Amino acid sequence: MTIKFYKGCCPGSSWNSKTQQCERCMPGYSGINCTSLCPYPQYGVDCQRKCNCSKDRCDVSTGCQQITTVAQTLCLTGYFGRYCRARCIYPYYGEECEAKCNCSKPLCDVATGCKAVDEDNSFSHNVASGCVMLLLDVKLQIKG
Predict the structure, then answer these.
(1) Which residues contact 97 (CB under 8 A, 6 or more apart)?
(2) Pairwise CA distance, residues 20 & 69, whole Å
(3) Between the CA of residue 87 and those of 76, 91, 111, 126, 142, what are the distances in Å?
(4) What are the CA-CA distances from residue 122 to residues 4, 39, 117, 137, 139 (Å)?
(5) Distance of alpha carbon 61 from alpha carbon 94, whole angstroms
(6) C-alpha 131: how far from its chain's center?
């Protein structure tokens, strides 16, 4: 059985018609073409974080929301705009996208900038699904 993904994008990413490439899902979204919302109480990138508040106060992107009387939006670092759905465009990253990466696009994180490169600069290419995955991400998560 062969599973096909839209434009060859892996689950956890979607096709960006402007840049003509697959991009990681925004925090709070996952699955094929980023169509699945994180289920409560999960939130954030790849639904890896957990809300410690009621379902009505748990935002799928940012987690527990503070109740305020003033309209206020606080975005995760690297994201901006209404509902924080826009992300910094390469090579920019950080608060209000004011910093600039001096590394290749796959190594530029919208929140923290250039990721450390493993000593062998290893990348993995999964030929069967056409998905390119950085071993670096996995190694950083394990070490972190």
Answers:
(1) 78, 80, 88, 89, 110
(2) 41
(3) 9, 11, 9, 27, 25
(4) 26, 33, 8, 11, 11
(5) 17
(6) 16
Sequence ranges of the domains in the chain: 1-72
Distance from first CA to last CA of the chain, Å, rounded?
36
Residues contacting 51, CB < 8 A, separation 6+: 40, 41, 42, 43, 57, 58, 63, 64
What is d(CA 110, CA 77) in angstroms, rounded to the nearest whole number? Answer: 7
What is the pLDDT tens value at each position of the chain, 144 positions in all?
556 667 788 888 888 888 889 999 999 998 888 888 899 999 999 899 999 999 888 999 999 987 654 445 678 889 887 778 888 889 999 988 889 999 999 999 999 999 875 444 443 332 222 233 333 333 334 444
